[in-house]
Specification:
With 150 residues, the protein is of the alpha/beta class. Helices cover 31% and strands 33% of the residues.
Length: 150
Amino acid sequence: MKHPFHLKAVWNGGRNSEGHIDAGGLKTNISIPQEMGGPGTGTNPDEMLLGAASTCYLITLAAMLERTNITPQELTLESEAIVDVTNNVFTYERIVHKPRIVLKSDATEAELRKAEVLVYKAEKSCMISRALAGNVSVETQPVIETIKAI
């Protein structure tokens, strides 16, 4: 079964103009970021690619944890993208995901090890990461801990 996704875009002018996209649940203004010489209005392709990679990874990780009966007390993610600009050529080089999983204070060593395995497995299983493979390096730097006893 195939699932189509659609996006409509309007762009109002040249390079340093602004536009708007509508992709169902994603409706936003777009432009080139200020750091790259644009107006910095709304979001931009770099942020959207990072958002796609990060949300795909986080949802995949949550599903994998659920399937193995690991229920985190907290599951958060910080991600960073590195874009290189050399000779006016923009290259999306790398994404680093930093998931933080907090398990109950009585989590077993086996649960901690399984969670660690899953943080890396989720990256290889995520559809967006697979689409980026060979083009953008994706790294995972997890923190897995238990709630400290009071």
